Amino acid sequence: KGLISIDANDIGEFFQRGEEIHALDVSVNAASDSRMKQLMEKITGNAMSRKPYNRCLVFFFLPENHPMMLEELLPFSNWIETISGELMIKWGMTTHPLQSLRAIVLLQ
Q1: pLDDT tens, 43-101?
Q2: What does DSSP say about strands 88-95 and 55-62: parallel, antiparallel, or unpaired?
Q3: 18: phi > 0 → left, psi -120 to 50 → alpha, else beta; which?
Q4: S-S: 96 plus which of 39, 61, 72, 100, CB 3.0-4.6 Å?
Q5: In a 3-state reduction of DSSP, which class is residue 74?
Q6: Count of beta carbons in the 10 Å neighbourhood of residue 103
C-alpha cells in the first residue's frame, strides 16, 4: 500500500538512459523529534559528492505508528531549494514495519 506511490515505470521514464545513477540509502530513528532534519542532513552530506545532478528521485519509508506530518516536509523542501540549476524531482512515501524513517535517493 502506498501513500504517494512510485513504480518501476516512474523510474524508467524519469532517468536518462546511459547516464550513471547514484543511490543513497539513509535512515534515522522514527521517534526522534527532529527526524526529518536529521535525515536531510545525512542526504545532504552524501549528495554533495554526487554533484552535479539534475534528476532526483526520493522515496521515504516510515512506520505506521509514526506517520509523517505535513510540516515535517519543510527540511526536504528547503534542501530542494539549495540545489543549483534546473532540478527534476519525483518523490513518494510509504509505510514499512521498521521503527526508522528511511529514504532511498537516486541522483543523476
Answers
A1: 999 998 888 888 999 999 999 999 999 999 999 999 999 888 888 999 999 999 999 99
A2: parallel
A3: left
A4: 61
A5: helix
A6: 22
